[in-house]
Amino acid sequence: MKLKPIRAGLAAALLLLMQGCVVAPQEQPEDALKNLLVVAPQPAELRYQLEVAKLNEVLTEETLPADTMAELLYRRGALYDGLGMTALARIDFNHALEYQPRLADAYNYLGIHYTQAAQFDYAFEAYEATLELDPEHPYAYLNRGIAAYYDSRFDLAVDDLRHYFEQSPDDPYRVLWLYLAEVEQDVAQARNNLAQRRIAHGGDEWGWVLSDLMLGAISPVDFIDLHAARDLKDNETLAERMCEAYFYLGKYQQLAGQHKLATVYFRLALTTGVYMFLEHRYAGLELARSMAVVEHNDE
Q1: Which of 6, 11, 201, 267 lies 20 to 30 Å from 172, alpha-carbon distance?
Q2: Which backbone phi and psi does 96 adopt, to 5 degrees?
Q3: C-alpha distances out from residue 240 to 112, 179, 235, 274, 276, Å
């Protein structure tokens, strides 16, 4: 197993964690809110809006072939989705399937939308259609695994997310989502698996810092102060970075039983307006879950 170039001190801490010798840093929950970085929402992508306007003109043509109509409707639906206009996106995806019933990508998008709406039976039907039409679809296993996770079908979630992880084990986000599913089955084993994958496949990139947070190798305060807003890539915005940061901080606090604090982070993730990120898509579901626990505890 090749050890990637992660910091020596961190690698040692992770090895100790795997042996049960490391615990998460002890902080008061309110300390984590002292260094909040609130960002402006991501502006609506101008080129998406311009392309929608052009597609609106093209789609008025009545002589377009059915396959062309399907592709154009699908493309406009994807643009609406990226702009956060989910109702219009869903209408276009359904219309695209009327013209071309074998459009796997449209089913995949519908599955995502049904998952966001907690309509899980419809989501699974959409993903089954996706995989029947395209067994090698690059995202269907991820998305079906996430649907299973939110539907508390953790065996299916682990199977699908492990399949997705095995296609590219160097992807830190695949590691994270597999961990989130595994931790619902066995906390200790899931943490051990995450630490092993971090050591085997990880590096110093931002995505792997999220695993360090989940493992307790860095504290939430240090996570924000030292990592969250630093070393942005040229094609990465601060809103995108903080969308991820606040979503996984919410999951960290949620798993620690700090649901009131988790609701703050999930709300912050939603305010970033990064509609195409998984973390933004599912922050609403996470917020509802933590709020339900808070309300139950307050009764």
Answers
A1: 267
A2: -60, -40
A3: 19, 22, 10, 6, 10
CA distances from residue 20 to 8, 14, 57, 192 in whole angstroms, order as listed: 19, 10, 62, 9
Average pLDDT score over the chain: 90
Q: DSSP character for 139?
A: T
Continuous H helices in the chain: 8-18, 46-58, 66-82, 86-99, 104-116, 120-133, 140-150, 154-167, 172-182, 187-201, 206-215, 220-222, 238-255, 259-271, 278-298
Q: State the sign of the Cα–Cα–Cα–Cα dihedral 240, 259, 285, 160.
A: positive
d(CA 268, CA 286): 12
CA angle 215, 219, 222 (to 5 degrees): 130
pLDDT at 97: 98
Token readout for 157 is 């979630």
Q: Are 257 and 225 in contact (CB under 8 A)?
A: no
Compute how many other C-beta atoms are within 10 angstroms of the C-beta atom of residue 87: 9
**Lowest-confidence pick of 13-27, 104-118, 221-235, 269-283:** 13-27
Percent of the chain with pLDDT over 70: 89
Distance CA 163, CA 265 (A): 29
pLDDT attached to residue 38: 83
DSSP letters along 94-137, please?
A: HHHHHH-TT-HHHHHHHHHHHHHTT-HHHHHHHHHHHHHH-TT-
Residue 9 has pLDDT above 90, yes or no: no
